[in-house]
Amino acid sequence: MFTGIIETTAKVVKIEKENTNYHFTLEVPFGDELAIDQSMAHDGCCLTVVKVDKEKKQYVVTAMDETMLKTNLSTWKVGTEVNVERSMRMDGRFDGHIVQGHVDQTATCTKVVDDNGSWRFYFSYDAKNAPSITVPKGSISINGVSLTVVDSEPGMFSVAIIPYTYQVTNFHNFREGTVVNIEFDVFGKYVQRLLEQYMAAQKQ
């Protein structure tokens, strides 16, 4: 479980393919604190640490074919900057929203607007690929960042980014056409599923 409050960014330093699996080696400032079997969110995708090199502050995670197909990990290259967050501690404040680290689908950045001190990012996604719901002022996770929805239409939404978030996450790398991971609000997904089941029952 995560909060969507990004700790820092990690850099991809090596990519190895083994059958249908991909092994990603990343370097992160707190790499010497990591341990095997830890869960970490990478651009919002929960992956397990399988190897650690504390001296180099590097670690390895493995993504299987299913993960590669449903996330933006297939776009990662050596040098790619990735948002990372370790799993949530239960003894502190909950500053974001509940993020499971289970990416629902990818979205594409369609426009970036400079709001003279902040930025508005617009994204499109496959609205037919359930669960897929956003509401104005609702929560959404983009590359693991907990954000508030500004504009919301079927298959499209926007978020506003303050300078701090722009600087400390990989949002500063986003351009028109950038593919990102999105996780819809877990409560919204349950409500959507319940409504679908109710409507289906009404038709019987």
Features:
six-stranded antiparallel barrel; 12 strands; 204 residues; mainly beta; Elongation Factor Tu (Ef-tu), domain 3; globular
Describe this structure in words.
By secondary structure, the protein is mainly β. The protein has two domains: 8-86, Elongation Factor Tu (Ef-tu), domain 3; 105-197, Beta Barrel (Elongation Factor Tu (Ef-tu), domain 3). It is built from three helices and twelve strands. It has helices at residues 65-70, 163-168, 186-203; strands at 8-18, 21-27, 39-42, 45-53, 58-63, 81-86, 105-114, 119-124, 139-142, 145-153, 156-161, 179-184. The strands form two sheets. Strands 1-2-5-4-3-6 form a six-stranded antiparallel beta barrel. Strands 7-8-11-10-9-12 form a six-stranded antiparallel beta barrel. The longest helix has 18 residues, at 186-203. The chain is globular. The model has no long low-confidence stretch (mean pLDDT 92).
Mean pLDDT: 92
How far from one another are the termini?
Answer: 38 Å
Rg is 17 Å
Can you name the CATH architecture of the largest domain?
A: Beta Barrel
Taking pLDDT < 50 over at least 5 consecutive residues as the criterion, the unreliable ranges are: none
Shape: globular
Structural class assignment: mainly beta
- Oligomeric status: single chain
Write the H/E string, N to C.
EEEEEHEEEEEEHEH
In total, the number of strands is 12
Number of separate structural domains:
2
CATH topology of the largest domain: Elongation Factor Tu (Ef-tu), domain 3
